[in-house]
Write a structure and sequence with these properties.
The complex is a heterodimer of chains A (about 350) and B (about 425). With about 350 residues, chain A is of the alpha+beta class. Chain A has helices at about 20-25, 65-80, 100-110, 140-150, 155, 200, 205-210, 290-305, 315-320, 325-330; strands at about 30-40, 40-45, 50-55, 60-65, 80-85, 90-95, 165-170, 180-190, 195, 215-220, 225-230, 250, 255-260, 275-285. Chain A has a five-stranded antiparallel beta sheet with strand order 1-2-3-6-5, with helices on one face. In chain A, α2 (about 65-80) packs antiparallel against α3 (about 100-110). In chain A, about 50% of the residues are buried. By secondary structure, chain B is of the alpha+beta class. The radius of gyration of chain B is 26 Å and the shape is globular. The chains are: A alpha+beta (about 350), B alpha+beta (about 425). The interface between A and B is large, with 120 and 128 residues. β5 (about 80-85) of chain A pairs antiparallel with β5 of chain B, so a sheet runs across the interface.
Amino acid sequence: MAQPQMRKPVEYFLDNKKYLHPKFAANYGNWKTHDRPRPGVLHHVSNTGDQVWTVRAGTQRQMDVYTIRKLCDIADKFAEGFVRFTIRSNIEYMVSDESKVAPLITELEKNGFPVGGTGNSVSMVAHTQGWLHCDIPGTDASGVVKAMMDELYDEFKHEQMPNRVRLSTSCCEINCGGQADIAVVIQHTKPPKINHDLVANVCERPAVVARCPVAAIRPALVNGKPTLEVDEKKCICCGACYPPCPPMQINDPEHSKLAIWVGGKNSNARSKPTFHKMVASGLPNNAPRWPEVNAVVKNILMTYKADARPWERMADWIDRIGWPRYFEKTGLPFTNNMIDDWRGGRYNLNASAHVRF
Amino acid sequence: MAKQLPPTPLLDQLETGPWPSFVTGLKRLAKDKDYVVDVLGHLEHSYKTRKGYWKGGTVGVIGYGGGVIPRFTEIKDEKGEAVFKDAAEFHTIRIMPPPGMHYDTATLRQFCDVWEKYGSGLIALHGQSGDIMLQGCTTENVQKAWDEINQMGFDMGGAGPAVRTSMSCVGAARCEQSCYDEAKAHQKVINQFLDDIHRPALPYKFKFKFSGCGNDCMNSIQRSDMAVIGTWRDNMSTDDALGKKWFAKHGMNELVNDVVAMCPTRALQIKDAKDVRKDAHVGAVAINDTQCLEIDNKDCVRCMHCLNVMTGALGPGKDKGATILVGGKSHLKIGALMGTVLVPFMSLKTDEDYEQLVELAQTIIDFFAENALEHERTGEMIERIGLANFLEGIGLDIDANMVNNPRMNPYVRTDGWDDEVAKINAKKAAA
C-alpha cells in the first residue's frame, strides 16, 4: 500500500487585504454615507469623496463550478474583478464608475441572476443542507428555498416591504438556518422509531440519555440486547437524540411536518433583538415544491406588507398591533401549542390587563 | 461524457421558476461526472421517499482532527451494496473564507478548478457558520483537494466540539457604520485559536462573530458564543448639510413618525436651533435653517435606527470600540439563548486594544474548557453557574449594563453584602 502523503498543514487564517476591491482598500474605515439609487444597487461615498457602486444579485447558494465561473466572467468583463458574498448568499459586484452599473445589471439578469435583495426587499433565504448532504435532515432546505424564492422573486427585486425581510429555513429543530422575520423549520410530531438491534453498537448510550431535554430516554433491554427506550408520553419529538444515535430515527415522511415562525430579529435597531415565535405548524413535507408552506409564508408577508408602517420589522409590527390582531389579520389559528410551557415560558404570558379590543 | 442520468421527475420540478436552480447546476455537472449522476439519483430518492440517506463517519486530513464532514450513503440493495455506488461517499470540506467574504475572481476560479478535479464540482457559498463548503468528495480525494487548497493560502474550518469558523461583516471595507476593524479582530482572534479549531477538544462548539455596529449583520447575538458588536461611547457624529438634505427630501411627517417616534429610549426631540441644550452630551443635527433634531447621547443606546434612516446626517462617534456579549446559541438543549453583555465597551483602536480582545477570548475559552459539561454551550454553562460566578471565574467586574433589571426574588445569600459594597466603593475611590 502506498504511504499517505505526509504534508504538514499550513495553519494560518488569512487576512482579506488582497481580496478587497481597490476602492475598499483605499477608503478602509473612512466611509461617510450611502444611498440606494435603485433596488439591488448601493452607492457608497467616502470622506475623501471617493465613490463605489455595489450591485447585488441572488444566487442558488449550492453552486456548480460553471455557475461560479459565469459569475466570475461577469465580474471580469462587466465589473472590476472583485466580488463579495453576503451572509444570505447574494453576490456583490463593485464598480468605481456609475456608467458600469446598468450594463452589469443587464448581464446578470440575462444570465438568470436576479438583481435585488437590498433595503426593504425580501432577501434570499438563509438555509441549511437538507437531503443533499445532511445526516439528519427532515426536509431539503435547498428545495424549499428554491420554491419559495420563485414565489418571492418580485419581492427580492423590489423594495416594497415596510422594512427589510429576512427569511430562513431549517431541516430539523436544531434550526441551523437561524432566527428570522419568517422561519420555516421542521417540527417532528412522533417519537423516534428505535431499531433496537443497532443501538448498542452504534450509540454511546449515556450520552444519548443526557442529550434529551425532557429526560424521556432510559436504558433498556430488548430481546436480550442493551438498548434505549423512550417514554413516549414525555417525549417532545425534538429529535435531539437522533444525531448521537441514528438508530433512533426521528424523520418520518408523513409525521415530520413544517412549522412557521415569525418575528425573529437580530438587529438592535429600535427594539432589542428578538427570537422568532411559532405561528403555524402541521404543514406537510410536500416535496418538491411545498405549496402549503409557500401559501402561509406569502399570506404572512402580504399581510405585513399591507399593514406595517415604514421601518417596522415583522417583530415591531406585531408588537404594535398585538398577537390577537396578528392572528385575526393573517387568519392563522392560535392554538394550545403556541402557549409556551418550556422553562421560562411563564414570561411569555400576558401579566397585565393590557388587552386590545 | 458521463453515464446516463436516470429520470428525476421530482427534481425536474425545481428547474421551473425564475430563481436560479441548484438542480440545473447539478445536472450540468452530471453531464461530465458519473459521481454527480449518482448524487442526483440519491437526491431524487430522498424527494420520493421524503427522507435523508447520508450517515456520518470518520474522514480527515493529516494533522487535523476536524473540518471534513464525512458522508456515506445508506441507500443499499439487499446485498448491502450501495445503489448509487459512484456517490457512495459524499464528504464536505469546510474552508474558512476571507473576513468579510471578499474575493478576487482568480481565487474563486482556483477553487472551481480544484473542486472540478477532485470533487463533485458543487460549492456552497457559504455555510451557515460562514464556511466555503466544498460539497461532495470521495475519501481518497479529500487529502489531495485539501493539499491544493491549503497551498492557495486557505485553512480548514471547524467541526465538532471545537472553535468554529467565524464571520465578520463587510464593515470598514464599505460601511459608514463600522465601529472597529472587523476583519482585523476576526483574523487576530481566529489565529489565536487555530489549534482549537483543527483539533476538537472542547466541551462543545464555540463560535465568534464580528459585527461592526448594532445592526449586527452577522447575527452575532443569536448565533455566537462570543459576539463582538461595534459601538461608540462619545456623542454620535452629525452633518448639518446632510441633515438638511434628508429633511428636504423626506419632510416633517417622516422625521416625526419614522425617526423621533421610533427612538426606543426617547433620546430624540425636535427643537428650534436656539433651544438646543448646551450640555456636552447633547448633540444636534440641523434639518433646516431654524430647526434641529436634538440628540441626548446619554439616553441613546446605539440601537442604530436613526443612523439607518438618516445615514450620513447621523453617524457613529469617534470614540469607537465594541460591546462584547457571551452565550448566544440556538435551541438545543435548554432553548435558544441570546448573547448577553459581558463587556459594555472595549476600545478597539490600537494594536494593544486588539490584543486585549484576543486575551479576553482566550480567558473565556479557557474557562469554558475547564468548566462546561460535555455538550454544554457557553450560554448554558453561564445559566447553570450564574453570571456572577462566571465573571468571578474570568476576573471581570460586574456592571449594571449586564442586566435588564436587578434580581426580582430574595433567594440569595447576602451575608457578604458589606464586604462587597466596601470593595466597590474602594474601586470607585481608586478610579
